[in-house]
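Q: A reviewer asked whether we had any structural model of the full assembly, not just the individual parts. We don't, so I'm hoping you can provide one. Inputs are below.
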Amino acid sequence: MSSKKENSAPFAYEGLERVIHERARLSILSSLAAHPQGLVFNDLKSMCALTDGNLSRQIQLLQEAGFVEVWKGTKNNRPQTLCRLTEDGRARFLEYINELEQVVSNALRTEARKPRAAGAGGLSPA
Amino acid sequence: MSSKKENSAPFAYEGLERVIHERARLSILSSLAAHPQGLVFNDLKSMCALTDGNLSRQIQLLQEAGFVEVWKGTKNNRPQTLCRLTEDGRARFLEYINELEQVVSNALRTEARKPRAAGAGGLSPA
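A: Here is a predicted structure for the entire assembly that you could use as a starting point for your response.
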């Protein structure tokens, strides 16, 4: 089952882009993908169960990486921050989701076959 | 769409356990899940496209966290290291995969609806 690194590392999952994969950012991007009109800071915070500080940091990072737009304005006479996915952010998020689907389908295919764990042959515990 | 943190943070994805979620470890666990009989170090390295040092570190961490067993032995007269998922590791990996399925299905459900991004109302760019 060994294979050359160049053309086949079937479990390397190189499409799991680091910026997206970190859990807090994955939460934020998923929330925004589900709300194309954008979300104000407090709603995003609740949906992702993040603290103010962490959400601010991650939003800034995602903005710098071109995934989200940040808009300042007022709503009901209170200052608000609105976050939305950029077009490019949405496209890259969907590429990431395709790779996640691959991870899931690899795992579920194995589970369907489910051969029993064999003995360790001539090997002994470390 | 705002919601209480205690009972509904629909995008928090708390099942994305940190030990599993990191990409190198996700590669390793996926490979091992697909090979219940275990994999020797070099095959695992090729499948995951990891360096010796990184693979060693991650395997040790996964062993300490109870996900993998490490066996020492010889194969074709050469010393070998065999890694396998523990029963508990397999169960936790599958729980994680269930959560990943949720991430994917949330994203794809949104994409199927695909409303167009609305204007930003009274808000202006930051």
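A: Points you may want to mention in the reply: Residues 58 and 64 of chain B are 10 Å apart (CA to CA). Confidence is low (pLDDT under 50) at residues 1-7 of chain B.
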